[in-house]
Specification:
The chain is of the alpha/beta class. The chain contains six helices and four strands; from the N terminus they run H-E-H-E-H-E-H-E-H-H. The protein has one domain: 3-Layer(aba) Sandwich (Rossmann fold), CATH 3.40.50. About 45% of the residues lie in helices and about 20% in strands. Strands 2-1-3-4 form a four-stranded parallel sheet, sandwiched between helices.
């Protein structure tokens, strides 16, 4: 069984497009992702904010389950040194990858990240 598969998660995503936030192990990215998700839900936007450790982006189980729904990936400041790894992992799928600025992440400025994601998604269309 995949470490990424969980029935509750699949139900929670419920076919929505994914905005992914990655960090070292998924803990700090979860704090930002939860704030982003609350804002997205309150704004009635059709997106799910997923958080994970950055290494998941190259895991075949992860990509098999989620890559078709991922619109954009954001890399938290503590793993900026792995930014190229993330870009390389997502390049095959034509998924854009961006760094979250330290100040934005440190202040948990979820509105800035959501707006940036929406702009990126709009520009892809």
């Amino acid at each position: 069984m995949s470490i990424f598969f969980e029935d509750n998660l699949k139900r929670e995503i419920n076919g929505r497009r994914i905005i992914a936030v990655v960090c070292a192990g998924g803990m700090t990215s979860s704090m930002l992702a939860q704030r982003m998700q609350k804002f997205i839900d309150e704004s009635n936007l059709p997106y799910y904010v997923m958080f994970s450790g950055i290494e998941a982006l190259a895991d075949p189980d992860f990509t098999k389950l989620y890559v078709d729904n991922i619109e954009v990936v954001y890399v938290s400041p503590q793993v900026h040194h792995q930014y190229q790894f993330a870009k390389d992992a997502m390049a095959h799928y034509d998924i854009p990858v961006f760094k979250i600025e330290g100040k934005v992440f440190g202040t948990m400025d979820y509105r800035t990240v959501v707006q940036d994601a929406l702009n990126c998604i709009r520009d892809k269309q």
